[in-house]
Design a protein that fits this description.
The longest helix is centred in the C-terminal third of the chain and has 18 residues, at 261-278. The protein is built from 9 helices and 17 strands. A hairpin with a 2-residue loop joins strand 15 (211-220) and strand 16 (223-224). The strands form 4 sheets. Strands 7, 8, 9, 10, 13, 14, 15, 16 and 17 form a 9-stranded mixed β-sheet that branches. The radius of gyration is 36 Å and the shape is globular. Among the domains are: 7-58, RNA-binding S4 domain (Structural Genomics Hypothetical 15.5 Kd Protein In mrcA-pckA Intergenic Region, Chain A, Roll), CATH 3.10.290; 70-252, 2-Layer Sandwich (Pseudouridine synthase), CATH 3.30.2350.10. It has helices at residues 9-15, 21-29, 124-131, 151-160, 200-206, 239-248, 261-278, 286-297, 311-324, and strands at 7-8, 33-35, 38-39, 45-46, 52-54, 57-58, 70-75, 105-107, 115-121, 139-146, 162-164, 167-169, 173-176, 186-193, 211-220, 223-224, 234-236. By secondary structure, it is of the alpha+beta class.
């Protein structure tokens, strides 16, 4: 933001990574933000010279800007999507990498009993667009249902819809998933929808007198969870995945060009070196270290083995040794021979 240009307050703070625009608008409504000593109002435009305070703390744009990043987090049941939990439950933020500037913003939320894919980014505008219903970003879920879903229920949940909190909610699709052979009370289903209202999947299923025994988010827009992330872990989005997200919400200008094969190879080598360095190694003795260094240099000598002596030579040696050994003198008796 230049000294003369004016931008909306929520956009400036969102671009700095403080939170999404929607969250910052809530901060403004709650009176948590001041501009030049005056409580901010929704829609206020600011300049670079304006003094902005959030919760009494002066906001200073970082000199170093963090590049746009996206994380794929595999949430597990029991984790909460909040920075500080008063009940002391584990949060998804406890293991995330530190940022030079800004902070991680979650793209939507998953309740404590839901697992699966959760996207995080340090770009406020990207997070806002991925969550906004106007961009119709599809969310995919694997849901295990206790009870029978009849064709009539499928019609209700995908066409007619169900009134929830004053709006008509429905799935974009609902189809049987992969189930074990035989009849079981619990059956897997695949569900998709393009809105992320609170607990909407569970509430739709429960509106038909059914029970959700397990719920997993498997995809968000073009990003699929896959099997490469362990529960409670994360990984950086690839360049292709990040660009696909940006293009899905009309931020093509921020998409980076694909890296060259040489850059990809160097990244892979660096990652392999980091994994090898982090792997614990057993301590070695000084002699073993010298032998390893010699082997690496290419002039290690094979260990010399002691050659066994022939049996004949060994017995001859014992005979000669016995011959050279003087005998002890015998004790004389008191009688003399005549």
């Amino acid at each position: 933001m230049s000294d003369s240009s004016h931008e909306r307050l929520q956009k400036v703070l969102a671009d700095a990574g403080l939170a999404s625009r929607r969250e910052i608008e809530r901060w403004i409504e709650a009176g948590r933000i001041e501009v030049n000593g005056v409580t901010a109002t929704t829609g206020l435009k600011v300049k670079a010279k304006d003094r902005i305070k959030v919760d009494g703390r002066l906001f200073t744009p970082a000199r170093r800007t963090e590049p746009l990043r996206v994380l794929l987090y595999r949430k597990k049941v029991g984790e909460v999507v909040t920075r500080d939990d008063p009940e002391g439950r584990p949060t998804i933020f406890r293991k995330l990498p530190n940022l030079v500037s800004g902070r991680w913003i979650t793209v939507g939320r998953l309740d404590i009993n839901t697992s699966g894919l959760l996207l995080l980014t340090n770009h406020g505008e990207l997070a806002k667009r991925l969550m906004h219903p106007s961009y119709e970003i599809t969310r995919e879920y694997a849901v295990r249902v206790l009870g029978e879903i009849t064709p009539e229920i499928i019609t209700t949940l995908t066409r007619t819809g169900v009134m929830i909190d004053g709006h008509r909610a429905k799935f974009d699709s609902l189809a049987p998933g992969v189930n074990e052979e035989g009849v079981s009370a619990n059956q897997w289903w695949g569900a998709t929808l393009h809105e992320g209202r609170q607990r909407e999947v569970r509430r739709l299923i429960e509106s038909q007198k059914l029970q959700v025994s397990r719920l997993i988010r498997t995809a968000y827009g073009p990003i699929v969870l896959g099997r490469g992330i362990k529960a409670g872990g994360f990984r950086e989005a690839t360049d292709a995945e990040r660009n696909a997200l940006l293009k899905a919400v009309g931020l093509d200008a921020l998409a980076a060009a694909p890296p060259s094969p040489g850059v990809v190879r160097k990244r892979a080598e660096a990652a392999a070196s980091a994994r090898a360095a982090a792997r614990p190694q057993a301590p070695r003795s000084a002699k073993a270290k010298r032998a390893a260094e010699a082997a690496d240099a290419g002039f290690a000598k094979p260990a010399r083995k002691a050659s066994p002596k022939p049996r004949a030579a060994a017995s001859a040696g014992r005979s000669s040794a016995a011959a050279k050994t003087p005998r002890a003198p015998q004790a004389r008796s008191g009688k003399r021979r005549p």
